[in-house]
Design a protein that fits this description.
One of its GO terms (molecular function) is transmembrane transporter activity. Keywords: Membrane, Transmembrane, Transmembrane helix. It is a multi-pass membrane protein. It comes from Microbacterium stercoris. This protein is mostly helical. It is built from 16 helices and no strands. The protein is globular and about 55 Å long.
Length: 412
């Protein structure tokens, strides 16, 4: 399972074109982080209302992902990618022109639709077009995620220091560049894929292996977005609410995600079972969020813990995706749509729930981090209890019954 970074980097130009667009797409997640306080102030919105910028984006992303394999199997991966990018360009620009927080929230929903078409298809396309096997392709994909998460807050901070609107226009421009790169460089085999049924991603949840990973990823993503979406508001009372400061803090966080997803995750999975890695890292991540709850009044501690959380999140992102893609014999596009769809729904739930707990129910910056601890431990428990369904991802031979079950669910 070990892959050298040098080998992973030897990819066709078409793969690099998709990876670049992935970086910009994932920038859209962290882009708004440094400007959340500014948006709340300028548009006279509460933290809970502002957190809906994540919710509508991720909710529509997650829901639409269940249908992306159906669409891409009919019009082709390249067209699906390009439609997704075009939708993002339009709605990112519209979000920058919105006159109210609810206008931005609505346009972020449209942005999420484009994001779903692009992200789900991009993962399956990178796996199919890359050299070096599935694990190497996933590492490259997760590296793009990490770089996007790192650069997004920094770009958001830099452009947000001019106006909260500028980062949205910047994203639209970068996505237009990604659209051009994929149009020019992506060359896929001229074969007609077998059409996927509209119900395939939902039926895929009948596969116990994929169901285990999808539900575990849902709770994991809740913990992920508690840290990402609530921390800026936790730093406001500590005087660290300007866009540039938050941009640098989350740049460090995203850089940590990128480094461990590329370099540390492969080292760990080369030495132990993938599920063991998950069962070690998830409790460690819960400890980080517990410390954030206990030290929420200490700005320096929060910054250090955010970056420490990024180191663990990078490992989790890569290994979770590897296990989900390799745990079944389902078609890649179906597995990717199902897993990604459920995972993003967790990200949609967490930001408003965290803000509601922290800003309304308990009026405490610590409460949302306690929520993060709980959901991360639930995720670990699901993987532990469902581990027998993940033998294939751990490189352990499946029984004939398990194999037949996986093939039966994926059959058309």
């Amino acid at each position: 399972m070990s892959h050298s970074p040098a080998g992973i980097l030897k990819q066709p130009l078409s793969v690099w074109a998709i990876a670049f667009a992935c970086v910009v797409s994932f920038m859209g997640i962290g882009l708004v982080d440094p400007i959340l306080p500014a948006i709340a102030h300028e548009l006279e919105a509460t933290p809970t209302e502002t957190s809906l910028l994540f919710t509508t984006y991720l909710l529509i992303t997650g829901a639409a992902m269940f249908f992306t394999s159906w669409l891409s199997s009919r019009i082709g991966a390249k067209r699906t990618l390009l439609i997704g990018l075009a939708v993002i360009v339009v709605f990112a620009a519209l979000a920058g022109m919105a006159g109210s927080v609810f206008g931005v929230i609505g346009f972020r929903a449209g942005w999420g639709l484009g994001n779903a078409l692009f992200i789900s298809t991009a993962l399956a396309t990178i796996i199919g077009a890359s050299t070096g096997g599935t694990a190497g392709a996933i590492i490259l994909y997760e590296a793009a995620l990490g770089v996007g998460l790192a650069v997004g807050p920094l770009v958001g901070g830099l452009l947000g220091s001019v106006s909260w609107r500028t980062p949205f226009f910047g994203t639209a421009v970068l996505m237009a560049v990604g659209f051009t790169a994929i149009t020019a460089l992506l060359r896929l085999p001229k074969t007609t894929p077998e059409p996927t049924r509209l119900s395939a991603p939902f039926r895929a949840l009948g596969n116990k292996s994929l169901l285990t990973m999808a539900v575990a990823a849902l709770f994991y993503n809740m913990g992920f977005f508690v840290l990402l979406a609530w921390t800026p508001f936790a730093l406001v009372p500590l005087g660290m609410d300007d866009a540039m400061t938050l941009g640098w803090i989350f740049f460090g966080w995203g850089l940590a995600v990128a480094v461990t997803s590329v370099f540390v995750a492969p080292l760990l999975t080369a030495r132990m079972r993938r599920t063991t890695v998950l069962l070690v890292v998830l409790p460690l991540l819960a400890v980080v969020e517990l410390l954030m709850a206990l030290l929420a009044a200490n700005g320096t501690a929060l910054i250090v813990l955010v970056v420490a959380g990024g180191l663990l999140l990078g490992v989790m992102n890569t290994v979770l995706t590897e296990v989900s893609m390799d745990a079944t014999t389902l078609p890649r596009s179906v597995a990717s749509s199902t897993y990604s769809g459920v995972r993003f729904l967790g990200g949609a739930i967490a930001p408003p729930l965290a803000s509601w707990l922290g800003d309304t129910v308990f009026a405490s910056t610590s409460a949302p981090f306690v929520l993060g601890v709980v959901v991360l431990l639930i995720s670990a428990a699901i993987i532990l209890l469902g581990r027998r369904h993940l033998l294939r991802a751990d490189g352990i031979e499946e029984t004939e019954v398990q194999t037949a079950e996986a093939i039966g669910v994926g059959a058309e």
